[in-house]
Amino acid sequence: MSSIVCKDLCKTFRQREEIITGLDNISLTIEEGDFVCLSGPSGSGKTTLLNAIGGLDTPDSGEITIADILINKLGKGAMADMRLHKIGFVFQSYNLIPVLSARENVEFIMQVSGMPAAERSIKSYKILQEVGLEGMEERRPAQLSGGQLMDLFTELNQQQHVTFVIATHDVRIMKYAKRLIKMEDGKIISDQIQ
Ligand SMILES: Nc1ncnc2c1ncn2[C@@H]1O[C@H](COP(=O)(O)OP(=O)(O)O)[C@@H](O)[C@H]1O
Ligand SMILES: [Mg+2]
Hints:
The structure is a single chain. With 194 residues, the chain is an alpha/beta fold. It has two domains: 1-95 and 162-194, Rossmann fold; 96-161, no CATH class. Helix content is 33%, strand content 28%. The chain is built from six helices and eight strands. The strands form two sheets. The protein has a four-stranded antiparallel sheet with strand order 2-1-4-5, with helices on one face. Strands 6-3-7-8 form a four-stranded mixed sheet, sandwiched between helices. Helix 3 packs across helix 4. The model is unreliable at 89-94 (pLDDT under 50). The site of adenosine-5'-diphosphate (ADP) has 13 residues, from strand 1, strand 2 and helix 1. Magnesium ion (MG) binds next to helix 1.
């Protein structure tokens, strides 16, 4: 199982004389195929947590394991490989690659899971058709509406078991999540299945 396990993550930032809390002892397990929304006020640590999980920044202490691999100890090359094959990309709030079209994004996810090319092409067409994106296959994520993207994410989550972790304040996006985690001052203050 490619679950994400975070254990006792701490991160502080120093700004001149001030020490700012990014993550305050966060422990969290996200199972493969989950759809998690991180919410909480600005400055609560959502981006810091996503950056840590995505290997874009390292916590001061604690451990992150993805698919049974402890990512803290990975070198740059191995981390880049992990991001490509296991994590996908964390671009702003979305896990899609902005330079690829909707169809290419869907096929990319399938390719990572080892699906042969012919099957990818048939299946990606079907998925895009099911979410009402027929005729819009070649659009890039930025050329789709928020609702169209969320429908696509839901389909990928359900059909391909792609795990999503999205940071947002947008209640319209939160509605799509299976699990809602609220953060405040670098801590998890609530964690609910919805
Ligand atoms: N590079 C940085 N330098 C200094 N402080 C930072 C840096 N990144 C984040 N912070 C601080 O860490 C806290 C958490 O930030 P962040 O994770 O971006 O919160 P959120 O994404 O929930 O708005 C905030 O107080 C923020 O100002
Ligand atoms: Mg943020």
